[in-house]
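Action item from last week, closing it out:
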Amino acid sequence: MTENAERFLLDPHLDFIRSEGIPIVEDFGIDLLAVEVAHWPRLEAAGAYTLLKGRGDFIDAYVLELAPGRATAPQRHLYEEVLYVLEGHGSTSVELPGGARRSFEWGPKSLFALPLNARYRHFNASGRAAARLAGVTSLPLVLKVFHDLDFVFQNPWDFAQRFGSDRFFAGEGDFIPVRPGRHMWETNFVPDLASFELRPWESRGAGGSNIMFVLADGTMHAHVSEMPVGTYKKAHRHGADFHIFPVTGHGYSLLWYEGDPDFTRVDWRHGTVYAPPDMMFHQHFNTSPHPARYLAVAFGGLRYPFTEDKRQTFLGMDVSLKAGGRQIEYADQDPRIHQMYLDEARRHGFEPRMERFIGEPVR
């Protein structure tokens, strides 16, 4: 058999990450704070790839750990990246076209994006504690398209328009009003997702709120949603790749395909991540004594949807299935779902506050 005859069904992305020499963890959901990391030669730090079952074709995720007082090697790459800080404090320095630099300091629950192909470094500000970040990238898409490492990692082109205003590196941004559930905040850096002001989004259920982000004028999507105490959201579905990172509170999510006799359950808190597989219904429930927030990161956003499926997701994510959308209204949900929540309320000792949205029968 010739060498060329063996070259079929290739996956340049998987080939590359296997060559990186760090652990690869694959599961439905992952506790990122517990993932074991190993030395990552390319970054001169430690890390692990964390591949979710529902990641889709375009994006992957990883954990990066910086030892006390250490920094990554300088990096530059032709794929987009969004980072969420799990723990620790540090800073990131980004080189602008022309050689000037912009630095910003991050801490737990910070969110930021790296402008496309910008040279950058991450620094751990603590001399005692490690810092751990989670990254979501479009590396699979880029490597599958170009399958040329020099082109991806040694490309000199500057995407000057991606850097935006200097204010975007200082935690400031521009609010872009659209309508509930579609309001956007354009920036490169959000210092604290736990305290960021959200906007009401009643149509997604139970007094919830939300904001969409445009980060570094990229195609990567990010949004934050919040559920008040004693409430849960309406179920909906969409294509694969939405990586969900709980930010505040704790709770669980139910996932199922239409016609499934039972639900798949994921319990979550800050530090976990999961991704609903393609067109799998999912529904989020707050069981904590505080409002529960989560961050969702995907490829294809409200500004640049990229695929027709993403366009339909943003058009129909809060529209009933009966009206051609992707959401199950409370009145149409499986009655077991609400009873399960009442059982959880008794178990966790919180008061359900769904009476305004759905009746609360006592078993």
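Closing note: Residues 172-348 form a domain with the Jelly Rolls fold (CATH 2.60.120.10).
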